[in-house]
Design goal:
The complex is a heterotrimer of chains A (about 425), B (about 350) and C (about 300). With about 425 residues, chain A is an alpha+beta fold. Chain A has helices at about 15-20, 30-40, 45-65, 140-160, 165-175, 210-245, 250-260, 265-275, 280-310, 310-320, 325-360, 370-380, 385-415; strands at about 85-90, 95, 105, 110-115, 115-120, 125-130, 135-140, 180-185, 185-190, 190-195. The model of chain C has no long low-confidence stretch (mean pLDDT about 80). Classes of the chains: A alpha+beta (about 425), B alpha/beta (about 350), C mainly alpha (about 300). The interface of B and C includes residues 105 and 106 of B.
Chain lengths: ~425, ~350, ~300
């Protein structure tokens, strides 16, 4: 077919519908629907959201179903890690030896049973004698002790004698067995490694279950986080709304106050505040609210200022709407975007500040457990019992990460022009 | 005598976005002679700015030139290295942009920004460059140039800023000046001044100019030849007179009809062209204008028309010029351009 | 210009006054007094002690004395560390915080800006993703977690650094790194955002159209504009870092100001608390003032009124 020849019906005029045929219609969505759709596509944000929901659910429900309370102390079981190297002492009986050379009886799959009866604690010879159902268990840590003093001596001499190789000596020290366990005279080695079934995250220095304390810490942190964010939201919206709405001198003065507050080193004042008022959960929330609302107020004020000029406000006014109605019904729904982002970012700040205060010793008091206080408690024995730090540290890091990532995702979803 | 300075042949440029390939320019060819001032007219999305950025090789990711050739002073500039291109930019080909407030770096003085160009391309000392900068500012009509050279862009008024931009562009005496919507952001009276300046510079310095705009009125004074672009392609090309008095493309006719005319006694409505530009993610296989064209035929939707020569130097891409195309009384009535009778829909 | 500086200085002085007053008010409300924990004192001795420290005078008089003393540089005498003036105590602890803070600031500024610029120039590629991940981690993981983990890994497991105190330069590595983490992360993100924004600007397109090398475009045109918001952040940041972080000093056992502050609070040592707070606040206000002035110098668009 000669492709240069043009069909005669090609010259017919084109109908209107055929011209529109190639236009692709996109369904129109409301702002919120569109933002939600964008958020859903952001995998990182979705994972964070799911994570946060899981954390909230565990914090709320786990304490009700867990068999140990957060302040229950079992001193015999203090400082037991979550993973145990256990020795077989015959008759299918096992023991675990703590870093303080205490012998605890455990069963084959890791449940703690009881502390073995102490027969003699010989500090001079660096041995401990225990009795368990007729068997005699000796824990001898003299070898390690000698090696340690030898090393300390070497360290002292090395300061004047550079030929001494400390690294090698340290290595030698590290490889010395910490203690020697013998059952009825026969030396035994650890048979296997099991998970601690009684305390899945181990115990602290008072024999309290670390797991439930971490969960309790989650309750505290989330409570403080949400409460502080809420208070800041309320104060901020009111302050910023009024400042932005009235504008002019009122706005000037109100913003000046904000500037002055900003120039105060906040951490300092939060600390001072905590000292002045009685320590406690309510105080912490209050302390967090004295300065952090400023950020929210600024955002709200900016939004109100921008929207004040827009026509729909004028329309509402001309219909006789009052100030609270305009604020509540027209302005706030439109500002929800940046406000939601701000709230989501405030929560991790509050959680961090509370943890920080507890870490320094100014936050919640014992026996309550906050992630910060747990880290603080763990600091003393960090090198010996690292797991005591590990679990609350992971908990708080993951939580803060989740909130931050969610906040970032929200920001991208609610205002794509603001892409970082 | 008037040799060809720039020859663009079958230029194709696309933007490779995450939604797909947006074909911004789909086969554009034209040339510019030495000392000639041409205008490229089109609406947003027609590809006119992308054309200029392609010539300057200033396309940012994800844009890329996908085909064609651009020959400037006998050199194929699509094939030279970036370093060689940089010695052409600002030196042999200069470009000015739409909004002079945002196009000038706010933290450096205007004089500094001119001197920077001079020192880069012409290896002048600071003092020489400084003096030359003041001369150029004078040439573009900025009063008190010595003092103004030490001012920052925000201390200039809109028209003065655009003059400053032109001064920067001209500092190294380029052979070609590309002006992308230079007057769109300015008041009408200032517009006239800037256009006047551009015209006089074009004549005085024998500098070729490409003036890009969406406003036909703007090119009427400065340019001798006009190119009309739509949907990434050239719809019509011809001299000023060809376009204004002898248009042959329905889009050109539509553009002419939507210009407000001062000297018409009758009360007239402005007749806009209804519809929206085509989606360049999936460009139509036929003429890009078919969906908005009053005279569209079945073939217009399916096959892209070839260029038909109306006259020497006047061509257009439209099936209506095909010998077999049926006659259309309305179309013929519009062929007088601005001289034809207005009003009939 | 002079008027602007004058206004800012006045504003700074007012802020300092406000901070001092606020601190005084808070101080007067701390439950208990410096001597509640000591052995029970007989009323006469207590009276004598109070008189010595001026605690028996009415509050307003105490306030005046306090303000005037501070004006003359007399920060009072420590309640707890008998025989030492507050000033001496502060000055004994400050050098450690200063050393750590100064190195940390340098590290943060150089590292943060470099990372931010690199990430912005290689947007969405490996460098960018890497920087963004690192900075997200650095900005969200709490400093005490970071410090503790660092201590465990590098001191216990690897034995590279000592764990406590301020003996050798090795003692400083941990504190400097940990104190930098958060701000480094934040600064990197801030720089990156700023650079990305500037790269979109029309005047960068103009600079390229002039045929300038990419090095000049970025190094001169981009940076000069992008660093403006960064500088506003750096000012207060330096103040916070130089005056020591409570957490870092606690974890690493640095006898700096941060640690002095927390212990003075736990001991109810009024004058020391006051002294350190005022010291810190003044530092902060002065640095903000310096930044404000620098800001005006580098951004010609600011009007000085």
């Amino acid at each position: 077919m000669d492709h240069n020849k043009i069909d005669s019906d090609m010259w017919k005029a084109l109908d209107e519908e055929e011209k529109d045929a190639e236009k692709v219609a996109r369904p129109s969505l409301t702002y919120m629907q569109d933002a939600w759709r964008r958020l859903r596509k952001n995998k990182v944000a979705v994972v964070s959201l799911v994570g946060i929901i899981l954390i909230i659910l565990s914090a709320v429900f786990v304490p009700f179903v867990w068999h140990i309370g957060y302040s229950e102390q079992v001193l015999d079981f203090s400082n037991i890690p979550p993973v145990l190297d256990i020795y077989n002492v015959g008759d299918d009986k096992y023991i675990y030896v703590t870093k303080e050379y205490k012998a605890i009886q455990v069963d084959a799959d890791g449940t703690l049973l009881k502390k073995c009866t102490v027969l003699k604690e010989d500090v001079n010879n660096r041995t401990c004698l225990y009795e368990l159902d007729g068997s005699q268990i000796t824990v001898d840590y003299s070898l390690y002790f000698k090696a340690k003093s030898k090393y300390a001596d070497l360290e002292r001499r090395a300061q004047n004698d550079p030929s001494i190789n400390l690294g090698e000596a340290l290595h030698e020290l590290e490889s010395t067995k910490k203690c020697e366990v013998s059952v009825d005279g026969r030396v035994v080695e650890p048979e296997k490694q099991v998970r601690n079934k009684t305390y899945i995250m181990g115990t602290d220095y008072l024999g309290r279950d670390l797991f439930i304390r971490v969960i309790h810490g989650a309750r505290i942190s989330l409570l403080v986080g949400f409460a502080a964010a809420l208070v800041n939201f309320v104060i901020g919206v009111f302050y910023g709304g009024i400042s932005g709405y009235f504008g002019g001198r009122v706005d000037n003065v109100m913003m000046r106050i904000c500037d002055t507050i900003d120039s105060i080193p906040t951490t300092l004042y939060v600390i001072l505040f905590m000292v002045v008022l009685e320590a406690g959960l309510g105080t912490i929330i209050l302390a967090l609210s004295i300065t952090y609302w400023v950020g929210m107020a600024r955002i709200v004020r900016g939004q109100v200022l921008a929207m004040k000029e827009q026509e729909f406000v004028l329309a509402a006014l001309s219909l006789g709407a009052s100030l609270p109605r305009i604020l509540g019904r027209h302005l706030v729904p439109n500002m929800m975007g940046p406000i939601m982002v701000a709230i989501t970012m405030q929560i991790p700040n509050a959680i961090f500040t509370e943890a920080f205060l507890s870490f320094v010793g100014l936050g919640i008091s014992a026996p309550m457990a906050s992630w910060g206080s747990l880290c603080n408690d763990a600091l003393g024995g960090l090198f010996t019992y690292p797991y005591q730090l590990f679990f609350p540290a992971i908990a708080i890091s993951v939580t803060m990460l989740a909130f931050n990532l969610l906040g970032d995702g929200l920001r991208d979803a609610l205002d794509p022009k603001q892409r970082k | 005598m008037n040799e060809t300075l720039l020859k663009v042949e079958d230029l194709r440029t696309s933007f490779f976005t995450h939604l797909g390939e947006v074909k911004a320019i789909r086969g554009v060819s034209f040339s510019v002679r030495k000392g000639e001032a041409i205008g490229i007219v089109g609406e947003s999305g027609s590809g006119k700015s992308v054309t200029s950025l392609s010539i300057m090789r200033l396309l940012l990711h994800p844009g890329k030139v996908t085909g064609g050739s651009i020959v400037f002073k006998d050199q194929e500039i699509l094939k030279i290295t970036e370093k060689e291109m940089r010695s052409i930019r600002g030196n042999e080909i200069a470009m000015i942009f739409q909004d002079p407030m945002t196009s000038l770096n706010p933290v450096f003085t205007v004089g500094n920004q001119i001197v920077e160009s001079l020192r880069k391309h012409q290896k002048m000392s600071k003092e020489e460059a400084g003096k030359k900068a003041v001369d150029i500012l004078k040439m573009v009509g900025i009063p008190d140039p010595a003092k103004r050279a030490n001012n920052f862009p925000h201390e200039f008024s809109g028209g003065m800023r655009q003059r400053a931009m032109i001064a920067i562009a001209l500092s190294c005496q380029p052979d070609l000046l590309i002006a992308d919507e230079p007057t769109t952001a300015l008041d009408v009276t200032i517009q006239a001044q800037i256009l006047e300046l551009m015209k006089s510079l074009n004549q005085k310095l024998d500098m070729s100019t490409i003036l890009i705009t969406h406003d036909l009125g703007v090119v009427a004074d400065v340019c001798s030849r006009i190119i009309v672009m739509y949907g990434g392609l050239i719809m019509e090309e011809g001299t000023k007179e060809d376009i204004f008095y002898r248009p042959r493309h329905p889009y050109t006719m539509g553009l002419l009809k939507s210009i407000p005319k001062i000297n018409n006694d009758e009360k007239q409505r402005l007749i806009p062209i209804t519809g929206t530009p085509p989606d360049l993610l999936n460009p139509p296989s036929g003429c890009p204008f078919y969906a908005r064209c009053k005279y569209a035929m079945v073939i217009c939707r399916t096959k892209q028309p070839p260029y038909f020569e109306v006259d020497e130097g006047h061509r257009t891409m439209c099936w209506l010029l095909h010998p077999e195309a049926p006659g259309n009384a309305d179309y013929e009535a519009q062929q007088g351009g601005v001289r034809s009778e207005a009003g009939r829909q | 210009m002079g008027r602007y500086i004058f206004k800012r200085v006045v504003s700074a002085i007012v802020t300092i006054w406000f901070i001092m007053t606020l601190t005084f008010v808070l101080m007067m409300n701390i439950p208990g007094d410096p001597f509640t924990e000591d052995k029970v004192l007989s009323p006469e001795i207590k009276q004598a002690v109070y008189a010595k420290y001026g605690l028996d005078k009415p509050v307003f008089e105490q306030y005046i004395t306090y303000m005037t003393n501070y004006m003359t540089g007399d920060f009072g005498v420590s309640f707890k560390k008998v025989g030492l003036t507050t000033k001496e105590i502060i000055l004994s602890g400050f050098p450690y915080s200063l050393k750590i803070g100064a190195w940390a600031s340098l590290f943060i500024i150089v590292g943060g800006v470099a990372m931010g610029v690199a990430a912005a120039l290689r947007q969405n590629r490996l460098t960018d993703r890497g920087v963004m991940i690192l900075s997200t981690l650095g900005a969200t993981i709490p400093s005490f977690v970071l410090a503790s983990v660092f201590l465990y890994v590098f001191s216990k497991q690897l034995g590279w650094v000592p764990s406590f105190g301020v003996g050798t330069w090795k003692h400083y590595i941990g504190p400097i790194l940990c104190i930098s983490a958060f701000n480094l992360a934040f600064l990197a993100r801030l720089t990156r955002t700023s650079v990305l924004e500037v790269l979109q600007q029309d005047y960068i397109r103009t600079a390229r159209a002039k045929g300038l090398s990419e090095f000049t475009v970025v190094g001169k045109h981009v940076l000069r504009n992008a660093l403006i918001p960064v500088i506003t952040y750096i000012g207060p940041m330096i103040a916070t870092i130089l005056t020591g972080s409570f957490v870092i000093e606690k974890v690493f056992g640095i006898p700096g100001i941060g640690q002095l502050f927390t212990s003075s609070i736990l001991n109810r040592d009024y004058t020391l608390i006051m002294g350190i707070t005022v010291f810190f606040a003044v530092f902060l206000v002065v640095l903000v003032l310096i930044v404000d002035i620098i800001y005006v110098l580098i951004d010609p668009r600011i009007k000085y009124d």
